[in-house]
Structure to design on (230 residues):
């Protein structure tokens, strides 16, 4: 798989149901979709350039094998993060400039420390190719947010959030496990160790699902109107 294609695929998956995709959809309900995508594009160019430079710089101070192991482990974390999901917390109302700059500034700050930015750092450390990873992840953000806008706003339908999240999460976790198998020293890849590692990942998935379901249930209970007759 080419570096560009890998960057596009991983970040598209990471962005599905992510906070920044929800932000793009929220802005598309107020501004022209062309303005929203232009703001997303400008913010992503700057934000992801910072991410790939940071990721590439790591390879100069940390041995490449350790970085590759860390990047692989991070993909598993991204999978768990994807299952947990994101929500907007007022990011779409925080700034009040012209439509373009409102979208660009809000999107830039929402992306700081977000899953897709961290995925970009991980890809840059894994492939050590600043320009190609930068172009690939930027393309991916435009694709993913365009999908969110079209499906969620133009067509008036909801993204099948649960199915998309699980598909993306499984892909992330699978590639993370494959990466660990490839880069960890052979002496650690015994059957007991690998079995324990897979069991631990499954346990983490179970715990994240339980926590997510509990949070959704609590939120649902908070919005249920109280019957005054009871």
């Amino acid at each position: 798989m080419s570096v560009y294609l890998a960057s596009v695929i991983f970040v598209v998956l990471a962005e599905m149901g992510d906070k920044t995709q929800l932000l793009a959809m929220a802005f598309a309900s107020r501004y022209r979709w062309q303005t929203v995508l232009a703001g997303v594009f400008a913010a992503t160019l700057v934000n992801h350039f910072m991410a790939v430079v940071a990721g590439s710089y790591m390879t100069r101070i940390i041995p490449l094998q350790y970085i590759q192991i860390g990047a692989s482990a991070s993909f598993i974390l991204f999978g768990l993060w994807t299952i947990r999901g994101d929500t907007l917390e007022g990011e779409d109302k925080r700034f009040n400039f012209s439509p373009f700059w409102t979208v660009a500034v809000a999107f830039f700050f929402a992306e700081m420390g977000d899953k897709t930015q961290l995925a970009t750092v991980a890809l840059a450390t894994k492939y050590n190719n600043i320009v190609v990873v930068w172009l690939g992840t930027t393309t991916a953000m435009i694709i993913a947010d365009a999908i969110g806008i079209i499906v969620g706003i133009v067509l008036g339908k909801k993204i099948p959030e649960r199915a998309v999240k699980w598909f993306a999460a499984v892909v992330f976790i699978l590639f993370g496990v494959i990466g660990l198998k490839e880069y960890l020293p052979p002496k650690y890849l015994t059957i007991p160790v690998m079995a324990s590692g897979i069991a631990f990942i499954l346990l983490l998935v179970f715990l994240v699902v339980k926590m997510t379901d509990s949070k959704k249930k609590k939120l649902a209970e908070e919005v249920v109107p109280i019957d005054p007759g009871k």
User: Anything to note?
Assistant: The two ends are 61 Å apart (CA to CA). DSSP finds nine helices and no strands in the chain. Residues 191-223 form the longest helix (33 residues).
